[in-house]
Design brief:
Glycerate kinase, domain 2; five-stranded parallel β-sheet; Rossmann fold; alpha/beta
C-alpha cells in the first residue's frame, strides 16, 4: 500500500512539513500502517512557509540570504531559494519572509511607511546570479505600497507633477504623476517572472487591496478611503504610461498591490499556489500511483471550495479513482459537501480535542487525532456496510 500526505500549513501552529510529519507519525502507530510506504509532500500557497515547503521536499534546493530592508526599513537577513529544473537555474522569493505581516508587531505597523523595497533588493541579487526564472510568492505581506518600493529598488523612479522624485514610501503614492524607466534594470525584460498567490482581488475598490487586506496591516477606517483613492490615482498614471489598467486584471491587489506591479512592470504570469506546488512536486503522478491520499489544512470551511489545496487534491484523486480523505485542525464542512470534489471523508483535531488543546500542543494533538482518524478509516474500509 502507498499513502500520499499532501497538506497545507496549519497557520499559526504548524508548517506544512510539521503537519504532514504529525499525520504520518499518527497513522504509523497502527500496525496496519507501520510498514506502509508513505510519501510526504508539504504544500504552501505562496505565503509564509513556501520556501520551507520546497526546501524540505527538494534536497537539491539551496537557501541563500542577503542583507535587505524589512517592511519598516530595518535591515534583516532576507532569504530566497534556488533550484534547478529542466537544467535551468530558478529562484523563489517569499515576500512574507522579507516584508511579512508577522514580522512586525501589531502596535508598530505603519502602513504609510511600510515598503516592499527589500523584495526588490532580493530580486536584484537573483538577477546578479544570472538566474532567468523567478517565482514570487506574494502572500502574507505587511505592506500596502502597490509594489513601488520593490520597483524603486530595481531602478524605477516615481515623479510628481514638477518632475521631482517622490521616493518609494506608500504615503507618496497619490503624488505620483509620472514614472521614469531610465534606470530600471534592463535584465528584467529577459527574465521570466511568475507570481504564486491564491488572491484574485483587484487593485482598488471595495474588494481591492486596501479595503480587504489593509486593516490587518494598519489601515484604519479614517485612512482607508484616502489610501484607496491614492491607488486609483496611481493606476491612472500606470494606464497612461503603459496602456495597462491594473483594475481590469485579476490578482493585482495581491500582496498590497505587488501583484499589479509584478504583472505590469515585471511581465509576471499569475499562478495559484496550489497549482504551482502540485506541478513543482510532481504530485499528480504521485497521486495516480497511490492507494490513499491524505490532505488537510488549518481549517476546512467554505473557503476550501474556492481552489484551496484540499479541493485541488481531491479533484486529482477523483480523476484517478483514488480514495482521498482530509485531516485538518478544525472543520465546518462534512463529507457530503466535499464528496463532489473527490474527498471521501474528513476528520479534524477538534473532533477529539478542544480548540485550546489543538492550538497549544498542536503537533501532539494532530498526531493523536490522525491515529484515531486512521482507526475509524480502517473500520469503514473493512466494514463498508456499517459505515455512516
Amino acid at each position: 500500500m502507498k499513502i500520499i500526505i499532501a497538506v497545507d500549513s496549519f497557520k499559526g501552529t504548524l508548517s506544512s512539513f510539521e503537519a504532514a510529519s504529525a499525520i504520518e507519525k499518527g497513522i504509523r502507530r497502527l500496525d496496519e500502517f507501520s510498514q506502509t510506504t508513505i510519501e510526504i509532500y508539504p504544500i504552501a500557497d505562496g505565503g509564509e512557509g513556501t520556501l520551507e515547503s520546497i526546501y524540505q521536499y527538494d534536497k537539491s534546493a539551496q537557501i541563500h540570504t542577503l542583507k535587505a530592508k524589512g517592511a519598516l526599513g530595518k535591515e534583516i537577513s532576507a532569504p530566497f531559494l534556488t533550484f534547478v529544473k529542466d537544467a535551468k537555474p530558478q529562484a523563489v522569493v517569499e515576500t512574507a519572509s522579507i516584508v511579512g505581516l508577522t514580522m512586525t508587531k501589531k502596535e508598530e505597523r505603519d502602513v504609510l511607511h511600510a515598503s516592499t523595497y527589500g523584495v526588490g533588493q532580493v530580486i536584484k541579487k537573483i538577477l546578479d546570479m544570472g538566474i532567468g526564472t523567478i517565482y514570487l510568492g506574494i502572500g502574507g505581506t505587511g505592506t500596502n505600497d502597490a509594489g513601488i518600493g520593490m520597483l524603486n529598488a530595481l531602478g524605477m523612479r516615481f515623479l510628481d507633477e514638477k518632475q521631482r522624485d517622490v521616493g518609494y514610501y506608500p504615503k507618496e503614492i497619490g503624488n505620483i504623476a509620472a514614472i521614469d524607466f531610465g534606470g530600471f534594470d534592463k535584465r528584467i525584460a529577459t527574465t521570466e517572472f511568475v507570481t504564486i498567490c491564491d488572491v484574485t482581488n483587484p487593485f482598488y475598490g471595495p474588494n481591492g487591496a486596501t479595503y480587504v487586506y489593509g486593516p490587518q496591516k494598519g489601515v484604519t477606517e479614517a485612512l482607508r478611503e484616502s489610501i484607496d483613492k491614492m491607488f486609483q490615482s496611481y493606476n491612472a498614471v500606470v494606464l497612461k504610461t503603459t496602456g495597462i489598467d491594473m483594475q481590469q486584471r485579476s490578482g493585482t491587489g495581491a500582496g498590497g498591490g505587488i501583484g499589479g506591479a509584478a504583472q505590469v512592470f515585471l511581465g509576471a504570469q499569475m499562478q495559484t499556489g496550489a497549482d504551482w506546488m502540485i506541478d513543482y512536486l510532481g504530485l499528480e503522478k504521485a497521486i495516480a500511483e497511490a492507494d490513499l491520499i491524505i490532505t488537510g489544512e488549518g481549517k476546512t470551511d467554505s473557503q476550501t471550495l474556492h481552489d484551496k489545496l484540499p479541493m485541488r487534491i481531491g479533484l486529482l484523486a477523483k480523476k484517478y479513482g483514488k480514495r482521498a480523505i482530509v485531516i485538518s485542525g478544525d472543520k465546518s464542512l462534512g463529507r457530503e459537501e466535499l464528496k463532489p470534489y473527490g474527498i471521501d471523508d474528513i476528520w479534524a483535531v477538534t473532533d477529539y480535542f478542544s480548540p485550546e488543546r489543538a492550538m497549544s500542543v498542536a503537533f501532539e494533538s494532530l498526531t493523536e487525532a490522525s491515529s484515531m482518524a486512521a482507526t475509524e478509516l480502517l473500520s469503514k474500509i473493512n466494514n463498508p456496510a456499517g459505515a455512516e
